[in-house]
Amino acid sequence: MRLFSRCRSGRLPVIALCGLIVGCVLTNDGMAVWAAQPDQSLQEAGDSLKVNVEDMVAHGGMGDAKAILHHCGEASRYAESILKQLSNSHPGRDESVTSLNEVIRHCKRVSEIGAQADPGVLLNPAIKARTAARSALKSLGLAK
């Protein structure tokens, strides 16, 4: 009987339709609204940034300075790509721009230190870059 009363009120078709459409969210009053979905290219750049900063720190633990430099360069490139793709109206833009600029700054510091340095010395700015990248991805809603 309850199912029948929902059909008569018109809520069940909306619920069924929202179940088919990705990105549709029901509010408390039963209204369907679209949830903001991140742009596909922005999501891909965010995923690549995350992979590179994680690999960068992992290679630091293994003592591979050349790999730290490589992944840090890639992370910096993806951070710049995300900065270019962000619109002024994007939610969380201000916080993420600051964090992405920190990723670039710390990765620049890693490249200035160079591959001849001890990997432990490179690890400190690499960890700071990873932390800033995680913060940026979280504020943009790209973290999984």
Separate helix tally: 6
Report the structural category.
mainly alpha
What is the makeup of the main sheet?
2 strands, antiparallel
Write out the strand line-up for the largest beta sheet, numbering strands in chain order: 1-2
Unreliable sequence segments:
12-28, 31-36
Measured as a percent range, the helix fraction is over 70%
Measured distance between first and last alpha carbons: 40 Å
What pattern of helices and strands is seen along the backbone?
HHEEHHHH
User: In total, how many beta strands?
Assistant: 2
What fraction of the residues are assigned to beta strands by DSSP?
Answer: under 5%
Globally, the shape reads: elongated
Assembly form of the protein: single chain
* Radius of gyration (Å): 21 Å
Average pLDDT over all residues: 80
